[in-house]
Amino acid sequence: xxxxxxxxxxxxxxxxxxxxxxxxxxxxxxxxxxxxxxxxxxxxxxxxxxxxxxxxxxxxxxxxxxxxxxxxxxxxxxxxxxxxxxxxxxxxxxxxxxxxxxxxxxxxxxxxxxxxxxxxxxxxxxxxxxxxxxxxxxxxxxxxxxxxxxxxxxxxxxxxxxxxxxxxxxxxxxxxxxxxxxxxxxxxxxxxxxxxxxxxxxxxxxxxxxxxxxxxxxxxxxxxxxxxxxxxxxxxxxxxxxxxxxxxxxxxxxxxxxxxxxxxxxxxxxxxxxxxxxxxxxxxxxxxxxxxxxxxxxxxxxxxxxxxxxxxxxxxxxx
Length: 319
Ligand code: A3P
Description:
Elements lengths: L9 H8 L3 E2 L7 E4 L2 E4 H13 L7 E5 L5 H12 L17 H4 L3 H5 L16 E4 L8 H5 L3 E6 L2 H15 L9 H9 L8 H14 L4 E5 H6 L1 H11 L6 H5 L2 H8 L2 H6 L1 H5 L26 H15 L7
The structure holds adenosine-3'-5'-diphosphate.
């Protein structure tokens, strides 16, 4: 996932090796493409996707900053959209598959290793996910009547979650990423799909200009007010809850099925692997707001807060 050997396809070599690079001593190197940093495998996926993805006006795309709750959002939107086909029951797909195997990432799963998948036979509305920054989303998507649900999270928890995740996925013999070094890189904008703040701001601006196309969500708000946010997603995607559904408690049922406690305790997520090989349990750690307090020093907190204030100033966005 993040530590794959840096194999670059011949047709991408000239382009990729001309890009600014940050050598990863402990993780894979990152390359700066169209203003954002990506591991080489994801980058090739992004470029292939830009060249070949044919958007449909009916597509729904979930876009997130890494470690902002993508797994949760995938579970919620999948369950919501497919509630007629898959009513909540003992054989609901989420009980036997990790959300990442139900809603596939464009650049890590579909357009990966130079594959060009045939997505034309998928029934509409199609549902995909991605971390691709706004400036790099495929042209066909920008030209279509797309609907994007964007999710981000406060930068301190995002950073801690990412640091823990990278350490979890790396081969044991290679040791752990130092917190300090990873932090300095994150602050300089050098992180997967970073700079974090630019990723968030570009989608924030788009959501302000085109609110019917981009729904902007925050993990922290979703944790605080899950029912309000779920109703809002349902409205935005054009599948609001009917009175009967509301009365039957469907909103709460979906949230219960997709809750951290429920998903992280399922056998499939405790001991299973994704079809792409990662351990499912790596996507479930604590699922709480504020774990940064247990990891960051006062200086780190001050520095991140200061960067965030400066970057978001005047945008109307508070993280
Ligand atoms: P922590 O590392 O802070 O626990 P992503 O899905 O984008 O990779 O983000 C992972 C983060 O979302 C992790 O945060 C993980 O524990 C949390 N998460 C996973 N499933 C969740 C759920 N169903 N509800 C809330 N948070 C969840």
